[in-house]
Design a protein that fits this description.
about 15% strand, six-stranded parallel sheet, four-stranded parallel sheet, about 280 residues, alpha/beta
Length: about 280
């Protein structure tokens, strides 16, 4: 008997981090439905994260949306979870929650896939003292306000600090700006060349985790155990605050209601000492 491939559409229209994390779920879907064709529907600005992925047959965007009636199965885990009350309080890794909606098990392996690594300038590729920083997210509670202190420490010890992010962000004093100058592909190449990337709970952390690059990710309202990705080798470190300023547990809020955000309890000296130990 001839069995036609199962036609699957995975829908993830935002955000960057959710799109990249979804690649580990695609891997499990392909294992479960081996005789399948998997298409992906996302927004134009996320396509760079998916280019080259061998599991994806066709990438659709809002410019050229798919004809959804032709699919046997459509997965929309982000929509399902965002409309569910209290899903973020489950204590589970967020990728596990998405995987459960899709009927697959990640088995504790939270490694996204990225196949579109670009190139960096030769002088940066050869610079053995390069540190990347990423300082901005959509949620104020996740932002660490002490990057200036860290960059000052790094500059005093002859590290070259370059800042990646969006063009409208403010440059940290003492850092060289790559703001608005790199695609995801180029940012990945810089991460591979750097000693490490100091970043927030963001797409930057997931991108470093996907390509096996070193990172130090800083966490506040969401515990790292629920959001960090990568194979967590010896040079992939996630730091949670030593104190939550009276909060009994992580709050998951986008805007902190405290006078001082808990993420700011992470000391620049701890990050600097870690970088020093990795540099020699």
């Amino acid at each position: 008997m001839l069995h036609y491939p199962i036609k699957i559409l995975y829908v993830q229209l935002r955000t960057f981090g959710d799109v990249l994390v979804s690649t580990m779920i695609l891997r499990k879907l392909k294992e479960k439905y081996q005789n399948s064709i998997i298409d992906y529907y996302t927004t134009t600005d996320c396509v760079d994260l998916l280019i080259g992925n061998p599991i994806i047959n066709t990438i659709y965007t809002e410019i050229n949306p798919p004809y959804q009636a032709k699919y046997d199965v459509i997965f929309r885990p982000y929509k399902c979870l965002q409309e569910a009350s209290g899903w973020h309080l489950s204590g589970k890794h967020w990728a596990d929650l998405y995987a459960e909606v899709c009927g697959v098990d990640l088995q504790g392996k939270y490694i996204p896939e990225f196949y579109n690594i670009g190139e960096v300038k030769e002088e940066d590729r050869l610079n053995v003292h390069l540190i990347l920083i990423q300082c901005k997210t959509r949620d104020n509670a996740k932002e660490w306000d002490r990057f200036t202190e860290l960059v000052e420490l790094l500059n005093k010890n002859n590290y070259l600090v370059k800042q990646i992010g969006e063009a409208d962000e403010s440059i940290v004093p003492g850092a060289y700006s790559l703001l608005g100058q790199t695609t995801f592909s180029e940012s990945a190449a810089y991460m591979k060349s750097a000693i490490t990337t100091v970043c927030l709970d963001s797409i930057t952390q997931h991108l470093a985790g996907a390509i096996g690059a070193s990172y130090i990710s800083l966490h506040g309202p969401k515990p790292s155990s629920m959001v960090s990705t990568g194979d967590r080798h010896s040079k992939q470190l996630s730091i949670d605050p030593p104190s939550r300023n009276g909060c009994e547990k992580a709050c998951h809020l986008a805007v902190c209601t405290k006078e001082n955000k808990c993420i700011n309890n992470i000391e620049p000296s701890q990050i600097f000492e870690t970088i020093e130990s990795w540099s020699f």
